[in-house]
Amino acid sequence: MRLVNYVVYVFLFGCLISFPSWADTNNLSGTLVVVNKKGDSVDFIDLSSRKIKLTLATGRGPHELAMSADGHTAVVTNYARGNSLSVFDVRQAKKVKTIDFSRYPKPHGVLFLKDQKRVAVSSEGSDSVVIVDIESGKIDKVIATEQRGSHMVALPASSERVYTTNMRADSVSELDVKSGALLRKISMPKVPEAITINKSGSELWVGSNDDGLVTVFDVANERIIKQWQGYSFPYRVLLTRDEQFAVIPDYRNHTLDVIDAMHKEKLRQIKFEPGTGPKGVILHPDDRTLFLSAYQKNKVLVIDIVSGKTLFELPTGNGPDGIGYSAVVLP
């Protein structure tokens, strides 16, 4: 029966790609906020006009970006020599706060907690996760990962746990947000970086750079559910909100894989030309239109993940990486 269901699912997926894209490219609106890693800045890009509205300075060496659920606040980690967070009011299109991270150097991964008031930030320099109140700018708590190279973070919908990929320890740390306790250290294939977790917190998806693997783990049992080989640098992994698909950009292979997240099958591989360097990924609210930062091209590619087609491109500054979407339309 499972085989029959899967065949039907693949058939329906094939039917979908024969129809027009999920996104009406003429009606996409809102604002992308894109980190320019080499430019120490963020671009505010208007989707309707497909132009950069303005560019604002961050701290030094910005990498990742988290957008609040309402699209009003963007938080950027200044990783390389910046040791700070830059907080932007998207509606006003201005930087409103800089939060000092000198005691917790090399802040990198960042995600909003469920309360949308705090963010969880990995500090690679202190091997910890720092919980920060964005409005007050104060540190709520610091949770040690007890592992080296804590680089990216993942949160289930509850935000009760936070997970970090520890690149120099070949592990993932599981931390309790409320108590601040380290719960587990889970062994991983070599040099884990990319990470996400499903809403229920039952499946952990991890990309391992040295081994060229993307692995799906059963969190409760630390059991491998599925593993894909052949990656060179699986830079990020992102689940659609309905958890039907996962997307995996490979920075060195210049590809984007689209995975059937339910049945754990690779549906397609989108190949880009050499010199693209796919990095940051975020979804439009339609859950099928992907914004992908092309680091080596200084562009954002707008992709329909159902058809695999690049719908259009957007200009960016130098070295686009972290990326966030807001429904806010700037004047």
From TrEMBL:
Gene3D superfamilies: YVTN repeat-like/Quinoprotein amine dehydrogenase (2.130.10.10). The keyword Signal applies. Pfam families: YNCE. InterPro entries: Haem_d1_sf, Host-pathogen_enzymatic-act, WD40/YVTN_repeat-like_dom_sf, YNCE-like_beta-prop. Residues 113-230 form the YNCE-like beta-propeller domain. It comes from the Bacteria. Residues 1-23 form the signal peptide. The keyword Signal applies. Keywords: Signal. PANTHER family: DIHYDRO-HEME D1 DEHYDROGENASE, PROTEIN NIRF. This is YncE family protein. It comes from Pseudoalteromonas maricaloris.
